Backbone:
């Protein structure tokens, strides 16, 4: 779907949602801080993600993009700040300045509201493709094997991998493994999907396949946070774009604002260096 179509659909949807209820905030990060030793990696970062919104996070290497996703996905603890999913607190900083996470049962519920896809696939190597997909729906969501299996088959078919359900990850190409990990993330029917450089381990042809899947998910109005170096792609699918540097959001806005009319010099420098790299000019 092209952007104008997408924008039109989104307007319809907003109007419709507007009649019934306000747009829901799927994730809210407030004043997040994170250090590794003495090194501050996330500095007072706040970010909201609305239902159906695709948020692209871009910025130079080492700016804290993965750390932000890891803290948001509860894989790393933050040092202070607040984190909410669907209006419920996953973490809050108390009066002593200590971060308090939700209780186990609530955490389990919150964790199952998001799906994660990483650069290096992270599939279980000793599980078949289908088991990689149906394991969490069975163990976390207590679905029956049959229900999980048929839903898993459907996802595999969507990923063009119907004939690979009994394969093991080592028998698949990188692009196929990444498609399995997207199917695995979708199997939990998450409210929000996090992608951390999902194509950076892939060659250009396989990258295209994965981007096509991401484009389809965006067109379905899946709520997604996408960390990527595929700036052009991000510009096409994202509703909001965040530029990070040195652990902080330097600028946030529409892809057009960030990519074509950035206010901050830092962003212009970054975009120019990407352009030079694409042309093969190294300084
Ligand atoms: N587990 C860790 N222990 C210590 N330092 C870390 C750890 N993880 C990340 N860092 C440091 O935090 C900073 C931010 O790293 P992060 O991986 O979040 O950057 P990034 O923006 O994702 O970079 P890239 O684009 O290269 O993936 C870097 O200086 C990194 O060295
Ligand atoms: Mg990273």
Residues:
């Amino acid at each position: 779907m092209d952007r104008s179509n997408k924008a039109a659909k989104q307007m319809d949807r907003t109007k419709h949602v507007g009649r019934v209820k306000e747009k829901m905030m799927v994730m809210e990060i407030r004043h997040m801080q994170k250090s590794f030793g003495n090194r501050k990696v996330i500095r007072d970062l706040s970010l909201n993600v609305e239902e159906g919104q695709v948020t692209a996070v871009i910025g130079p290497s080492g700016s804290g993009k993965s750390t932000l996703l890891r803290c948001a996905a509860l894989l790393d603890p933050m040092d202070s700040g607040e984190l909410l999913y669907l209006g419920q607190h996953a973490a809050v900083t108390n009066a002593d300045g200590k971060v308090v996470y939700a209780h186990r049962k609530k955490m389990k519920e919150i964790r199952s509201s998001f799906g994660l896809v990483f650069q290096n696939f992270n599939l279980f190597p000793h599980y078949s493709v289908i088991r990689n997909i149906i394991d969490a729906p069975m163990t976390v969501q207590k679905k029956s094997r049959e229900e999980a299996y048929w839903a898993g088959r459907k996802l595999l078919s969507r990923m063009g991998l119907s004939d690979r359900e009994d394969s093991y990850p080592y028998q698949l190409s990188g692009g196929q493994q990444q498609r399995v990990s997207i199917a695995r993330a979708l199997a939990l029917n998450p409210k929000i999907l996090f992608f951390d450089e999902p194509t950076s381990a892939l060659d250009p042809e396989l990258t295209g396949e994965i981007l096509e899947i991401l484009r389809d998910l965006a067109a379905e109005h899946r709520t997604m946070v996408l960390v990527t170096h595929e700036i052009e792609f991000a510009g096409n699918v994202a509703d909001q774009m965040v530029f990070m540097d040195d652990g902080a959001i330097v600028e946030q806005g529409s892809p057009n604002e960030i990519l074509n009319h950035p206010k901050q010099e830092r962003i212009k420098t970054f975009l120019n260096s990407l352009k030079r790299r694409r042309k093969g000019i190294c300084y």
